[in-house]
Protein backbone atom coordinates (compact mmCIF):
# COMPACT_ATOMS: atom_id res chain seq x y z
CA UNK A 1 0.00 0.00 0.00
CA UNK A 2 1.42 3.41 -0.92
CA UNK A 3 2.39 5.93 1.74
CA UNK A 4 -0.38 8.41 2.51
CA UNK A 5 0.67 12.04 2.70
CA UNK A 6 -1.85 14.64 3.76
CA UNK A 7 -0.80 17.17 1.14
CA UNK A 8 -3.81 19.38 1.70
CA UNK A 9 -2.77 20.04 5.31
CA UNK A 10 0.91 20.49 4.32
CA UNK A 11 0.01 23.01 1.62
CA UNK A 12 -2.29 24.83 4.02
CA UNK A 13 0.53 25.15 6.60
CA UNK A 14 2.96 26.46 4.00
CA UNK A 15 0.36 28.81 2.54
CA UNK A 16 -0.45 30.21 6.00
CA UNK A 17 3.20 31.04 6.74
CA UNK A 18 3.91 32.46 3.29
CA UNK A 19 0.79 34.60 3.49
CA UNK A 20 2.08 36.08 6.77
CA UNK A 21 5.46 36.73 5.11
CA UNK A 22 3.89 38.61 2.21
CA UNK A 23 5.70 41.87 1.54
CA UNK A 24 9.01 40.75 3.01
CA UNK A 25 12.21 41.23 1.00
CA UNK A 26 14.01 38.51 -0.98
CA UNK A 27 13.90 34.89 0.17
CA UNK A 28 12.05 35.92 3.29
CA UNK A 29 8.80 36.01 1.35
CA UNK A 30 8.93 32.80 -0.70
CA UNK A 31 11.29 30.25 0.92
CA UNK A 32 9.40 28.38 3.61
CA UNK A 33 12.26 27.75 6.05
CA UNK A 34 13.42 31.37 5.94
CA UNK A 35 9.87 32.73 6.05
CA UNK A 36 9.01 30.57 9.05
CA UNK A 37 11.87 32.03 11.12
CA UNK A 38 11.15 35.60 10.06
CA UNK A 39 7.41 35.33 10.75
CA UNK A 40 8.07 33.85 14.19
CA UNK A 41 10.48 36.66 15.06
CA UNK A 42 7.99 39.19 13.72
CA UNK A 43 5.33 37.82 16.03
CA UNK A 44 7.57 38.32 19.06
CA UNK A 45 8.13 41.94 18.05
CA UNK A 46 4.38 42.27 17.56
CA UNK A 47 3.77 41.12 21.13
CA UNK A 48 6.41 43.44 22.57
CA UNK A 49 5.10 46.32 20.45
CA UNK A 50 1.64 46.06 21.96
CA UNK A 51 3.15 46.48 25.42
CA UNK A 52 5.41 49.38 24.36
CA UNK A 53 2.48 51.19 22.77
CA UNK A 54 0.74 51.52 26.13
CA UNK A 55 3.95 52.78 27.75
CA UNK A 56 4.56 55.34 25.01
CA UNK A 57 1.04 56.74 25.11
CA UNK A 58 1.15 57.19 28.89
CA UNK A 59 4.49 59.01 28.49
CA UNK A 60 2.95 61.30 25.85
CA UNK A 61 -0.09 62.08 28.01
CA UNK A 62 2.11 62.96 30.98
CA UNK A 63 4.26 65.27 28.82
CA UNK A 64 1.16 67.08 27.52
CA UNK A 65 -0.35 67.50 30.98
CA UNK A 66 2.97 68.73 32.35
CA UNK A 67 3.34 71.31 29.56
CA UNK A 68 -0.19 72.63 30.14
CA UNK A 69 0.33 72.73 33.92
CA UNK A 70 3.59 74.63 33.71
CA UNK A 71 1.88 77.37 31.66
CA UNK A 72 -0.31 77.89 34.73
CA UNK A 73 2.64 77.85 37.14
CA UNK A 74 2.20 74.41 38.68
CA UNK A 75 4.17 71.21 38.14
CA UNK A 76 2.72 67.93 36.96
CA UNK A 77 3.35 66.09 40.23
CA UNK A 78 1.73 68.85 42.30
CA UNK A 79 -1.27 68.90 39.98
CA UNK A 80 -1.82 65.12 40.14
CA UNK A 81 -1.38 65.14 43.92
CA UNK A 82 -3.93 67.93 44.38
CA UNK A 83 -6.38 66.19 42.03
CA UNK A 84 -6.19 63.06 44.17
CA UNK A 85 -6.63 65.02 47.40
CA UNK A 86 -9.71 66.78 45.97
CA UNK A 87 -11.11 63.40 44.88
CA UNK A 88 -11.24 64.27 41.17
CA UNK A 89 -10.85 60.95 39.36
CA UNK A 90 -9.81 61.78 35.81
CA UNK A 91 -7.25 59.56 34.11
CA UNK A 92 -4.24 60.89 32.26
CA UNK A 93 -5.75 60.20 28.84
CA UNK A 94 -8.71 62.48 29.56
CA UNK A 95 -6.53 65.14 31.20
CA UNK A 96 -4.18 65.21 28.19
CA UNK A 97 -7.15 65.51 25.83
CA UNK A 98 -8.52 68.42 27.86
CA UNK A 99 -5.11 70.11 27.89
CA UNK A 100 -4.80 69.83 24.10
CA UNK A 101 -8.34 70.43 22.88
CA UNK A 102 -10.06 72.42 25.66
CA UNK A 103 -7.43 74.61 27.34
CA UNK A 104 -10.09 76.78 29.04
CA UNK A 105 -11.61 73.76 30.77
CA UNK A 106 -8.15 72.57 31.80
CA UNK A 107 -7.35 76.01 33.24
CA UNK A 108 -10.59 75.83 35.21
CA UNK A 109 -9.57 72.43 36.55
CA UNK A 110 -6.20 73.82 37.65
CA UNK A 111 -7.93 76.78 39.33
CA UNK A 112 -10.23 74.36 41.12
CA UNK A 113 -7.34 72.38 42.67
CA UNK A 114 -5.07 75.35 43.54
CATH topology name: c-terminal domain of poly(a) binding protein
Stretches where pLDDT is under 50 for at least 5 consecutive residues are: none
Radius of gyration (Å): 26 Å
Termini gap: 87 Å
User: In total, how many beta strands?
Assistant: 0
Report on this model:
The protein is built from five helices and no strands. With 114 residues, the protein is mostly helical. The protein has a single domain, classed as Ribosomal protein L20, C-terminal domain (c-terminal domain of poly(a) binding protein). The chain starts with 6 loop residues before the first helix and ends with a helix.
List keywords for this structure.
75% helix, mainly alpha, 5 helices, c-terminal domain of poly(a) binding protein, 114 residues, rod-shaped, 0% strand
